[in-house]
């Protein structure tokens, strides 16, 4: 059923129509109007009263507070039964500013207007005097599944809530064609990596980490679960320090990323130390040399929060669905989006568990599955996860 | 081209739905069987024979907690573990997420790598992995580590306190039973030296985080204060009084209806 919702949204990029809700919206307005009119009658009709009304009308356009909304909703129901022909009547009525009253245009149907109750007349008067327009508009029936869609709906249609854990794995077909082409490019890179790994006797699984803002390839890696590579070429140096049981594709790629970042930090530290030393040499030339060299580890900690934090905002392309361990590793490293090829029996991103939507975890991300499924299946055709 | 592809993928998904169902059934049946063989217990639920070994377990857990205190001094989250083979500690590990700038460097994985990098140990455990070993952790292993432990085919896991947000051995999921390919389910015993493990964490979280951004304090007013504020507003602008009237009138309308 989840997929059905998705498909509907695909087909109609414009949100799905729900006429009843529209009518309710109108009626909401009407009823607010009713209430104001009553106040009018109750309070002495001052000139100030009109001004206040206008202010109120502006406020009603904003979402009403919870308690108010409850009351209004109840009014909606009675409004429908009382006022079936409201739109028709509204078309035949004009507001006279000088008289502060409504005029009826047309001759024959005057009786129809006369038959309206005072309350109904008041409502019409209010609508006309504040230039409200009654129309039917399309409103989304289902919750938004992507952040982009939510942005569109929330600001252009009506306020709605975006909950990351609601979305299942959105299908690739939700993506625009341009991004599809780009995704294809990166997935081909991942497949290339997988072939390198396969030639060395590992499982044919590869991954690429990409910075979507600059389109930079941050890191590439492949599965290294086999203990000794077949052709005896040295593995990528950094990942040699991972025990092979755990060195799944994603673990190695995260290790690579972290080592890159640590070297980056060390370089920065050196630069700063050099600067400090220079300044000190210029000023005092003697002393202080001992102080600058100490506490390397403490210094690393002070730099940890600078620059890129783990893999935030990065997109990951992998040929096979990651296992539960790897999907949790992705949560720990704060990835933004994951695209994978073929799915696996015990995969953590959709098949066995849905780690990326888990409520209790502190990070959630988008997952696209079955991207270039056939090509990825050729590489490593087994139900086992990466 | 692209359009053709879009159609293909959507068709593929329909076909795959049947496969997914079958996979789910397989997974469930594997999980059921492993639940029969393996267990998650608290310390209180142990047998009398198992209880006799408790002081032994506590000894190893204390070693893990000592390791945690070291991590605390380094500014890491104080989670630490010890791997024991036939009464001998063969590896110690503690969180290294900050120093290594890698969110996946948890205590358990650090300990595995220690075994792998030590040639002597590596030769000893090469094929059997950790089949005869016990793990003692201060805090429940996270989802990632819980699966990694299955992959290493560990025998038993002892942990101190539960981890409500990430715990993979009972808190969020019970991953020690789960059907992981190439993995082996294992037994879990929780609550060993629980209070000391919690104390260790409290020591960490009571520290002031100097790097943390200034928190956005949400104002939560008492209902009485709210009333006062409402009155203030209504005094300043007459329009708001009208709103108050509206809500009163609404009640009247309801009754009429």
Automatic annotation (TrEMBL), chain B:
Cellular component aspect of the GO annotation: cytoplasm; nucleus
Pfam families: dCMP_cyt_deam_1
Xref: SUPFAM superfamilies: Cytidine deaminase-like (SSF53927)
Single Gene Ontology BP annotation: tRNA wobble adenosine to inosine editing
Keywords (A to Z) from UniProt: Hydrolase
Claim: Transmembrane helix is one of the keywords in the record: no
Keyword Hydrolase applies: yes
Residue span, CMP/dCMP-type deaminase domain: 55-180
Any one GO molecular function term: tRNA-specific adenosine-34 deaminase activity
Protein name in UniProt: CMP/dCMP-type deaminase domain-containing protein
């Amino acid at each position: 059923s989840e997929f059905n919702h998705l498909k509907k949204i695909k087909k109609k990029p414009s949100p799905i129509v729900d006429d009843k809700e529209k009518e309710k919206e109108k009626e909401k307005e009407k009823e607010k109007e009713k209430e104001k009119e009553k106040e009018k009658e109750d309070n002495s009709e001052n000139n100030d009263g009109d001004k206040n009304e206008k202010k109120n009308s502006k406020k009603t356009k904003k979402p009403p507070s919870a308690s108010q909304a409850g009351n209004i909703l109840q009014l909606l129901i009675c409004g429908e039964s009382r006022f079936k022909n409201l739109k028709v009547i509204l078309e035949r009525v004009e507001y006279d500013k000088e008289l502060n009253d409504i005029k009826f245009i047309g001759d024959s149907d005057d009786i129809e207007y006369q038959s309206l109750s005072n309350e109904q007349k008041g409502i019409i008067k209010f609508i006309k005097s504040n230039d409200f327009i009654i129309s039917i508009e399309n409103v989304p029936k289902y919750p938004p599944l992507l952040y982009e869609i939510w942005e569109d709906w929330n600001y252009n249609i009506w306020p709605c809530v975006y909950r990351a854990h609601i979305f299942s794995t959105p299908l690739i077909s939700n993506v625009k064609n341009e991004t599809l082409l780009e995704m294809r490019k990166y997935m081909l890179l991942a497949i290339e990596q997988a072939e390198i790994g396969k030639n060395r006797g590992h499982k044919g699984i590869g991954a690429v980490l990409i910075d979507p803002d600059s389109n930079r390839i941050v890191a590439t890696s492949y599965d290294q679960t086999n203990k000794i590579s077949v052709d005896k070429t040295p593995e990528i140096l950094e990942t040699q320090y991972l025990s092979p049981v755990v060195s799944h594709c994603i673990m190695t790629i995260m290790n690579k990323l972290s080592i890159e970042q640590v070297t980056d930090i060390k370089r920065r530290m050196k630069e700063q130390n050099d600067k400090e030393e220079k300044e000190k040499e210029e000023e005092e030339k003697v002393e202080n040399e001992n102080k600058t060299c100490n506490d390397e580890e403490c210094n690393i900690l002070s730099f940890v929060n600078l620059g890129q934090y783990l893999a935030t905002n990065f997109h990951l392309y992998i040929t096979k669905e990651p296992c539960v361990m790897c999907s949790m590793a992705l949560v720990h490293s704060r990835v933004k989006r994951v695209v994978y090829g073929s799915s696996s029996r015990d995969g953590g991103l959709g098949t066995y568990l849905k780690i990326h939507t888990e409520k209790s975890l502190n990070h959630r991300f988008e997952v696209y599955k079955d991207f270039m499924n056939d090509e990825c299946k050729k590489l490593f055709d087994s139900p086992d996860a990466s | 081209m692209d359009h053709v592809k879009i159609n293909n993928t959507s068709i593929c998904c329909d076909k795959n739905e049947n496969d997914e169902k079958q996979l789910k059934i397989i997974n469930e049946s594997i999980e059921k069987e492993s639940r029969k063989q393996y267990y998650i217990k608290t310390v209180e639920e142990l047998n009398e024979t198992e209880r006799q070994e408790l002081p032994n377990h506590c000894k190893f857990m204390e070693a893990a907690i000592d390791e945690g205190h070291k991590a605390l001094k380094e500014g890491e989250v104080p989670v630490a573990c010890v791997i024991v083979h036939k009464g001998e500690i063969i590896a110690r590990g503690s969180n290294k997420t900050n120093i290594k700038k890698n969110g996946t460097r948890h205590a358990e994985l650090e300990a595995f790598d220690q075994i792998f990098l030590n040639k002597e140990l590596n030769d000893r455990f090469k094929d059997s992995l950790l089949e005869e070993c016990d793990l003692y952790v201060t805090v429940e292993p996270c989802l990632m580590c819980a699966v990694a432990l299955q992959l290493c085919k560990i025998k038993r896991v002892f942990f101190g306190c539960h981890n409500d947000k990430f715990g993979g051995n009972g808190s969020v999921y019970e991953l020690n039973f789960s059907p992981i390919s190439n993995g082996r389910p294992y037994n879990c015993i929780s609550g060993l030296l629980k209070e000391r493990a919690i104390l260790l964490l409290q020591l960490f979280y009571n520290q002031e985080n100097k790097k943390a951004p200034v928190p956005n304090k949400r104002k939560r007013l008492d209902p009485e204060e709210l009333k006062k504020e409402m009155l203030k507003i209504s005094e300043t602008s007459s329009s708001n009084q009208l709103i108050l009237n509206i809500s009163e009138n609404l009640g009247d309308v309801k009754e009429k209806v």
